[in-house]
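Appendix B, example 12.
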Amino acid sequence: MWSPDGEQVAFSVGGAEVRVKNVDGGSPPRPVTRERGIVARDWHPGGAHLLASAVTGGELKLDLLAVPVSGDEAPRPVMSTPANEFGGRFSPDGQWLAVLSDQSGRPEIYVVRFPDPGGKWQLSPDGASARAPDRAPEWLHDGSGIIYEAADGNLVQVSFAVEGASPRIGAASTLFGGRFGELELEGWDLAPDGERILAAVRLRQEGSPTLTLVSNWAAELEPSR
């Protein structure tokens, strides 16, 4: 993933290490943390921290960690419960975190403060998609709402605002007339301007696949005279 200033990329290596590399190619990748089953999920807008999910404890569950990009400090827990915290996304101002977790017994979307949680609010009224449990919600570019994949595969948008010390979460509204779930998606992402969604759609093949038998194929490799 890209850093907010576009000068670095972070990536996971074998589920055991997260590395950061300058895009100018002037230096080799440097490890910033080594944790069991760790996967980088997002980069804080301030640039100093990565959000990562990692296997913690002896129960093989996933928790969310804040990983200092400097590599000089140990990661610290951001959200750690007896359930799985699969992934999350920082808000554009970096003060909130939208999280995909199954602590209710099914995948749901929650919002917590960052860096100090100090409360938790459920955003999804009817569950989130378990088809791709690492599919984190996406914030609108101005922080005014969150889009996530619902349990039925459709995309849902929920408005978000902060009043005093607590967030105000609006009613969930289904996008695209509730037909997004019919596309058999392989994945999707929200454009930085919040105006478009890029989706990888599985193509449907009409009819039966064909098999072609090529005989005497070795002759095709001989140089022509």
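The two ends are 52 Å apart (CA to CA). The mean pLDDT is 84.
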